[in-house]
Design a protein that fits this description.
The protein has 537 residues and is an alpha/beta fold. The protein has 16 helices and 23 strands. Strand 22 and strand 23 form a beta hairpin.
Length: 537
């Protein structure tokens, strides 16, 4: 089956490049981030940009070589390679949706704010269960439906699907006042979530004093601040790890909850002189909401696994992003959880064998909120940086802060792909690049004159990185009405194909505008999890 799977991947990834070869020839130039217009490589190739790592071989030629070898192998076992290849290429333009049960995951692959919620909203119409597994109200997703904006912080975006159950797993930390306000706000907007939200009894609670501690710690850092959202996420996880945290399920026995709360509140005040907590007032509030919260509380580990066993489809909505992961991100400028693929297992309580599709969401450029390294960053206040910030409406959903902006960073994306094992990419906000005379891609990192093969863990090294860029021609055509890959301008197609080539992962979804339906879905043929599933049957 290995040769069949390889041929299938080769045919599907090569098909659009072959089509583009009939209409365009592209020139890719490379410059360093210090502005030197060094033409390190300038190749003219029909239909696909050169892969600089392979001397004089384009991806098409390499795929052709693979196909030739597989053809010989298939002939030896009695299979027609030409027939098989044609079948695979026909499959590539199919947009049929798989109905097999399983757990699919949507993750952020950069520094957050990539547009995960929009894909989740679209996909969730076909799923029975949508879940959050990590983080808290520091996450922010915005969905635009018929011109109306819905902003989510704790609830999965799948709540807009009236048939879907929404699960908040044990890995999430929950600020209950914010959570209940979010539910009430949706109801006022006409979205009734009654009976469709389940809270894990093992999820930890974020208290108001956690948020006060968060702000205190951030302010104490002064010029070395992390850039936290001050939502209390870090201190709540600290309570969890210190084993004095309080869980949602504790509200079912309020006497026990009260005892634990008094202990935690007093310990926190002792640790932070000057911090005052109205213990009796807080206990009165939690007693008033206990019945409402416990009605939504259950063992979500049992629920989710039972749902899987009964054949239901489950979609995980990742919060934050890989480069903010406490282990894999640009530490210490990170969040306090693991918003990468591992959080699905630990934050929901499912086996890795149950995971199917892993969908990495990335903007066609790059943004970051808060402090920390950002190798491809542009000046937000002028030129292209201003264009990306204004046209892309780059202000944080949770904080309202202006996001930092820059070009797409391929070394960072390769690192994220390595960690998460993406089976398909969701390339968002391609429309924001419309109107630029040329677009750049951060192709490689240099340090002390040498190309780096890995993502540096040291902040000092990160600060000394020189980015090597590729430059591609831009486009001026409006793409907001594009609903197929062929509807895109040729130069926009070439940009997508180049990203796909550099990362070795198919781009399935392409965001073309802010509205709910402004997206191209290239179909199951552009999802490696579907190919792998077919090859194992």
């Amino acid at each position: 089956m290995f040769q069949s799977t390889m041929l299938k991947r080769a045919a599907r990834l090569a098909a659009p490049a072959a089509a583009a070869a009939a209409t365009t020839a592209g020139v890719v130039s490379m410059t360093s981030s210090n502005g030197d217009e060094r033409q390190q490589q300038q190749k003219q190739v029909r239909g696909v940009a050169f892969c600089d790592d392979k001397k004089d071989e384009s991806v098409l030629s390499m795929l052709g070589d693979i196909q030739a070898r597989l053809s010989a192998l298939q002939q030896s076992i009695g299979t027609s390679a030409s027939t098989t290849s044609a079948t695979y290429q026909n499959d590539a333009i199919s947009t049929a949706t798989s109905t097999k049960p399983g757990i699919d995951v949507v993750l952020g692959s950069q520094w957050g704010d990539e547009g995960k919620g929009k894909l989740v909203d679209m996909l969730s119409q076909e799923y029975d269960v949508c879940a959050r597994v990590a983080g808290g109200s520091n996450a922010g997703h915005t969905i635009v439906v018929e011109g109306k904006k819905y902003k989510f912080h704790l609830l999965p975006s799948g709540i807009l699907n009236e048939k879907a159950m929404c699960v908040i797993g044990n890995g999430v930390v929950i600020h209950l006042p914010s959570f209940l306000n979010e539910i009430d706000g949706l109801k006022q907007s006409g979205i009734d979530s009654e009976g469709r939200i389940l809270l894990s009894d093992r999820a930890h609670i974020v208290f108001d004093f956690h948020q006060e501690v968060d702000g205190f710690q951030e302010n104490k850092l002064g010029r070395n601040k992390i850039g936290t959202t001050k939502k209390g996420i870090g201190p709540a996880y600290a309570s969890k790890i210190s084993r004095n945290g309080i869980r949602i399920g504790d509200l079912k026995n309020f006497d026990f909850f009260e005892m634990r709360f008094r202990e935690l509140a007093n310990a926190t005040m002792n640790s932070y002189p000057g911090l005052e907590i109205d213990i009796d007032g807080q206990l009165a509030y939690y007693k008033s909401i206990a019945e409402r919260v416990t009605a939504m509380t259950t063992d979500t580990i049992e629920y989710t696994n039972d749902a899987y066993d009964s054949g239901k489809r489950i979609l995980i909505e990742g919060a934050n992003a890989t480069m903010l992961d406490i282990d894999f991100g640009t530490y210490p400028y990170v969040t306090s959880s693991n918003p990468s693929i591992g959080s699905v297992l630990t934050g929901l309580g499912v086996s890795p064998r149950k995971i199917s599709g892993i969908y990495g969401t990335t903007k066609a450029y790059c943004t970051r909120v808060g402090e920390g390294p950002f190798p491809t960053e542009l000046d937000r206040n002028e030129g292209i940086g201003e264009h990306l910030g204004v046209v892309g409406a780059e202000w944080g959903t949770t904080t309202g802060r202006a996001r930092r902006v820059g070009w797409l960073d391929i070394p960072q994306m390769r690192y994220s792909t390595l960690i998460n094992g993406f089976t398909a990419l969701n390339l968002t906000k391609l429309d924001v690049l419309t109107g630029l005379p040329e677009v750049k891609i951060g192709h490689a990192y240099k340090h002390n004159g040498k190309i780096l093969n890995t993502m540096p863990s040291c902040l000092k090294t990160m600060s000394e990185i020189e980015v090597v860029y590729e430059t591609l021609p831009g486009w001026t055509e409006d793409i907001s009405r594009a609903r197929s890959f062929e509807d895109l301008p040729v130069n926009a197609q070439r940009y997508v194909l180049r990203v796909q080539e550099l990362l070795g992962v198919p781009v399935r979804w392409i965001g073309c505008g802010a509205n709910r339906l402004d997206m191209i879905d290239r179909g199951d043929g552009w999802d490696l999890s579907k190919l792998e599933g077919e090859s194992s049957e």
